[in-house]
Amino acid sequence: MATNGGIDDNEWQKLPCDQKVQHKAWKARMTGYEECVTLFRTQNSDQSPEFMKYVSLMKKFAIDSNENAREKALDAVFAFVEEANIAGKTVNEVSSGIITKCLNARSKMKERAFDIILMYIEIEKQVEITEELVKGLENKQPKIVQACLELLRKGLSEFGSKVLPIKPFLKQVIPLLDDRDKTVRDESKLLIVEIYKWIGKQTLMPMIQNVKPIQMQELQTEFDKLDLNGIDKPRQTRFLRSQQELKQKMEETNIPSSVIIEDPNLDMQEDLDPFEMLEPVNILERLSKEFYEKIESKQWKDRKEVLDDLLTLLTQNPKLTSDTDYSELVKILKKIIAKDSNIPVVLVAAKCLTALAKGLRKSFKNYAISVIEVCLDRCREKKTNVIEVLRETCDATYPGTNLEQFSEVAVTLLTHKTPIVRQCTQQFLTKCFAMATQNTLPKKLLKIYLSGLIKNTTEADASVRDSAFESLGMLWKCLGEKHVFPNLTDLDDLKLIKIKEYAEKSVLLNLRGEPRSNAPITVSPTPAVTKKPTSIEIPIIKSVPPKPAPVIKKKPAVVVAAAPPAAAAVPAAKPSIPTNESIEEKKKESRPPKSSAPVRIAPSRSKQTLVNTSLSNPKINSTKIRPNTAPISKSATISTTQSRNQRLVPVLLPPSTKIRPKPPLSTNRRSSIDLTASNLQRQSTSTGGSTSSLSSTNTQSSIPCTRLQTPTSSTTISILRSVSNDIISSPTPSNSNPKSRIPVRTMPMTIIKKSSA
């Protein structure tokens, strides 16, 4: 914009660059910022004196009052930070100005502000940047808070937790999960998820345990989506100035990003100790007033109750203050482990000592030796769960001591009268030897341990001998044959071979109890051993299932094969095919078959139940029969035996016998009976014969009948059905047999006997 006839334009255009950026006109400043970018980029050295002129002006660049000019000013600041060696001196002033003036501006300016902040981290000013961003989290404008959270997340994602420490800002981020602004809540959740990638669940969860359940559920859902062993595994993708040479070498050789973690400079990402991020707590101040009274109570429940409270307190506060005196508390816990007869109380006390040792680490050194001695001595309990807990306590306590301090106690325990104590001591020493080096285990100290271990190789107990060989094998692996073998000359060849076998299987550990990276891989023989049993088991499994199948199939065949001889014993059953049911009926009959003499039963009006049976067994059960019968032909011999399962057995009849099918029932049954009875009575009166007429009005009652007085005389029996008034004649007198009977229908009918003339 030209003013006063263009005089102002000519004046500021003639000014040098360092004066243009301080001009009152925003156009002059904007032009000066553009010239500064070119100036900074064209310097031959990062220590050029031109950079010194603009050190004090950088803050004004970042907070320019005109947005258009400020946008160009940020380009100049970025070029200055990237090119100048003295840019680190401007970090506090520039970063604070950018946070307050640029993070809530338009997107292009905000993007350039992000580049400047991350560039300050690249020139190794991450501590100052973190402090300024933490201050920005307290800003009243949600846009600025959200932008600061995003910058922390990007810095952590690109540079890693080694470059950008998590501890300084984690406490300020957690309360923002409950912020009233949604963008702040969402961004803080994303930052927590990124933190989770770098430090893990075990360290993060205790620090966010006071988060609301709904927010915790949302975070847990995001945690479950991560694949930390695959695509979501955190990797450093941007490097500091001190790491640029390494980055260029990787780009030249096209090394994939997954190999970046193997660089020695980046191994410290895995060495990041989450314990250092926790705040120390003095738990003695939080103990209940009745703790020391109840811990001495005679009731084991009271003792266990206060110990459970102590264990909960130690679990919630994993880091303890190192300047506090815990001697009285440790003394009480040791006393419980050594003398308490209640196993649950001993287990809780051991767990409390484990938590104390982990919370104090090297500060636990004043109590370490005595605690290990008490725990190993209590291994005489011989219970697996007790030994495992006590072993964990010893492992957690050992970082507070060393092999030299423990040597005197170890020699005493290696000669303990209880074999299990010697075994547990040697197993503990094996792990200690795995973490040892030639500096921590000199020759003088080695001889002290070897004397007790060599003596235990001749013990009668096999577990003591094996654990002694294992400890000697670990020493062989740790120190080498050169230092150990001269002290083992008194052992025979078999024992030396066994020691070498254990040495080959041994794995050296670092101070954290993890396998050493430079240790030779000795795990390869193990899969070969485990594959052999599996290859042998497969054919055994395949050959087992076919065995029971043929046995099951043969069982029914034996039962069926025995049936034909039993059926053949009865000649009358030959025409029929024997069935399982007939065979079972025969087996149930214990009495021999009776003669076929007729059974005379007096007439009765009780309900009749008749069941057919086979001719092969004409047995009559008189106790279950209903006594309403009539004499019929011999061709239809029927028994009244009733089977237990109420099934009918087929009956074989001669070819001459004809059975008329049962006619359908009629609805006018009672009227037909009455009319038929009256007609027959008239006929009997007119002929002058003796007639006995019996009628039944109840359809469910028994059927009356009359028995022939003279069986030898010619008799004609007429049965008049009440349904259709048809007369069914019996067979001819030659074929008639008064001894046989036929089943009588339960429907009402009238039976009339006509005497011969």
TrEMBL record:
Composition bias, Basic and acidic residues: 583-592
GO molecular function: microtubule plus end polymerase; microtubule plus-end binding
GO cellular component terms, semicolon-separated: cytoskeleton
Alphabetical list of InterPro entries matching this protein: ARM-like (IPR011989), ARM-type_fold (IPR016024), TOG (IPR034085), XMAP215 (IPR045110), XMAP215_CLASP_TOG (IPR048491)
Gene Ontology biological process terms, A to Z: establishment or maintenance of microtubule cytoskeleton polarity; microtubule polymerization; spindle organization
Xref: SUPFAM superfamilies: ARM repeat
One family name in Pfam for this protein: XMAP215_CLASP_TOG
Keyword Cytoplasm among record annotations: yes
Biased amino acid composition, Polar residues: 605-646, 665-682, 703-714
Major localization listed first in the record, in broad terms: cytoplasm
Location of the region described as Disordered in the Swiss-Prot/TrEMBL record: 569-714
Domain of life from the UniProt record: Eukaryota
Localization per Swiss-Prot or TrEMBL: Cytoplasm, Cytoskeleton
Annotated protein name in UniProt: TOG domain-containing protein
Species assigned in the record: Adineta steineri
